[in-house]
Amino acid sequence: MTHYLDNAATTAIRPAALEVMIPLLTDGYGNPSGAHRMARAANRVLDDAREAMAAALGAEPGQIVFTGGGTEADNLAVTGVVEAMGGVPVCSAIEHHAVLDPVVHHGGRVVAVDGSGRVDLDRLTAALDDRVSVVSVMMANNETGIVQPLREVVAIVRERAPRAVVHTDAVQALCWLDVAELGAGVDLLSVSAHKFGGPKGVGALVVRPGVELTPLLKGGGQERDRRGGTHNVAGIAAMAVAATETVAERAQQVSRVGALRDRLADGIRDRLDGVVESGVPGSDRSGKTANICHLCFEGIESEALLFLLEKADIMASAASSCASGAMEPSHVLAAMGFDRALAFGSLRLSLGYRSTEADVDAALATVPAAVSRLRERA
Ligand code: PLP
């Protein structure tokens, strides 16, 4: 039996989300930009999905721009603002590459984080001036689960760079945090369906009124000229179903999955010495999302650990999936000041809405023994 502990990379589609897709692909496949009955029906599907996404994200339906996933939503936020307004983009050093790379590409400023993995607010203040057009700080980090001080970030940007807009990458947040509340003050907010039980390749960007945005994809004028291209109607409908279910069961899943994660992290730490849990002073995990157990093991390399875990049918990750395979330590851990050798021994076990006690039991039976074996070999 496979124990899937890589839910931050992607998670299984929710049955209700899958169910809504099939008839939209087989019968209700009209192009929503057309004029006939099937086109109008598809357009109504989009309207309903837009309303549901707006409700889940604390936005108005007209503020939702459907995209081809989280990377596109993040790129649209950064590049779209810089192309429309000019100026300099700013982001934190622990952003996903979908934010970091466009910020660097546009000659932006990257703000350091402190040892606890949160953006350093003094350095953020120092990085802001009248030239700054967009500031991007994620809601929760994909490798460590550390939640960022978004409200403080918004307050600082409003004071120091009043013409700048604030973007948050909430791709890792919807299952675990009240995105509507935490994101209430931001101008742009990205989500991605496959992180909360929708299909891959579909996402959304919330765009508040007054934000100037040049589209990345120019074409048929869809999404009120903010994103050209025929809509992925089935994917968008499924994303909306998944978002609605996710928000409805969030409180219950946070306590259930949080308890599983605590048992997992405590269990591994109890069984081994030389383990550092990121963003957890002592045993306080209140600053992290409920799903992520992120540990660094002294004296091993995570590649070898992942190999042993896979042999035991445990699917895990060293850092973000996009980065694994590269022999550079994660930029997130480097920014947090982790020693290079320790960063090479990192393991992310990420739980999801389908995770069970059996998954935790399997990891507890395997991870400590595998780490010990690798240390003996070294
Ligand atoms: N932002 C964060 C924080 C992520 O974790 C990811 C995916 O790993 C993305 C953006 C990219 O989203 P997508 O896979 O939908 O392109």
Could you describe the 3D structure shown?
Helix content is about 45%, strand content about 15%. The protein is an alpha/beta fold. The chain contains 14 helices and twelve strands. The chain folds into two domains: about 5-10 and about 250-375, Aspartate Aminotransferase, domain 1; about 15-245, Aspartate Aminotransferase, domain 2 (3-Layer(aba) Sandwich). A seven-stranded mixed beta sheet has the order 2-8-7-6-5-3-4, sandwiched between helices. The radius of gyration is 21 Å and the shape is globular. The longest helix has 22 residues, at about 250-270. The protein starts with a strand and ends with a helix. Bound molecules: pyridoxal-5'-phosphate (PLP). Pyridoxal-5'-phosphate binds near residues 71, 138, 169, 192 and 194.
Structural key phrases:
globular; three-stranded antiparallel sheet; 43% helix; Aspartate Aminotransferase, domain 2; 378 residues; binds pyridoxal-5'-phosphate; Aspartate Aminotransferase, domain 1; alpha/beta
Topology diagram in text:
Blueprint: E1 3-4, H1 15-26, H2 37-57, E2 64-67, H3 70-85, E3 88-92, H4 97-105, E4 109-111, H5 121-127, E5 132-136, H6 150-160, E6 165-169, H7 179-182, E7 188-192, E8 203-207, H8 222-225, H9 233-248, H10 250-271, E9 275-277, E10 292-297, H11 302-311, E11 314-315, H12 331-335, H13 340-343, E12 346-350, H14 357-377
Parallel strand pairs: 1-11, 3-4, 3-5, 5-6, 6-7
Antiparallel strand pairs: 2-8, 7-8, 9-10, 10-12
Helix pairs in contact: 1-9, 2-9, 3-4, 10-14, 11-14
Bound molecules: pyridoxal-5'-phosphate.
